[in-house]
Amino acid sequence: MINGIKFFEKIILVTVLIATVVAIGNEFIVMYSALEVTLADLLLLFIYIEVVQMVREYWTLDRIRISIPLFIAITALARYIILQGKSGDPSFLLYEAGAILMIALAVLVLRMRKLKIFEDSGEE
């Protein structure tokens, strides 16, 4: 049963990887046909790179660091802010920036928990 689940996981991982590569190819085609590369396009490519990294990490380690999806979320929100442009409601910009700040603080907390100053030394 466990081998069947592992095999199913690998099939899904390969499917996600293939879909990501196809999406990257489509994005390059769109950029080439428009003869323009925007910051939003580059951020989307970074999101795709992070997805490939998640697939690689899960394939090799059978786990995903929680910081990778958090970085994807930050990049996606930044891309959304850029795509929104000046036409959007300014209050939404504050909400989106606040969301980025909260996610960045979560990444900081996750990284700080590994520092020795926060470990319990066992002495009282």
Label this structure with key terms.
124 residues, mainly alpha, 4 helices
- From the N-terminal CA to the C-terminal CA, the straight-line distance is 48 Å
Estimate what percentage of residues fall within beta strands. under 5%
**Main sheet?**
none
Portion of residues within helices: over 70%
Using the alpha-carbon principal axes, give the shape.
flat
Low-confidence stretches: none
Structural class: mainly alpha
Secondary-structure element sequence? Answer: HHHH
Number of domains: 1
Round the mean pLDDT to the nearest integer and report it. 90
The total of beta strands comes to 0
What oligomeric arrangement do these chains adopt? single chain
What value does the Rg take, in angstroms? 19 Å
What is the overall number of helices?
4
Structure description:
The chain has 4 helices and no strands. The chain is an all-alpha fold and 124 residues long. It has one domain (2-118). Helix 2 runs antiparallel to helix 3 and helix 3 (67-84) runs antiparallel to helix 4 (90-112). It is flat and about 55 Å long. The mean pLDDT is 90.
In short:
This protein is mostly helical.
Q: What is this structure's SSE topology?
A:
Blueprint: H1 2-34, H2 39-61, H3 67-84, H4 90-112
Helix pairs in contact: 1-2, 2-3, 3-4
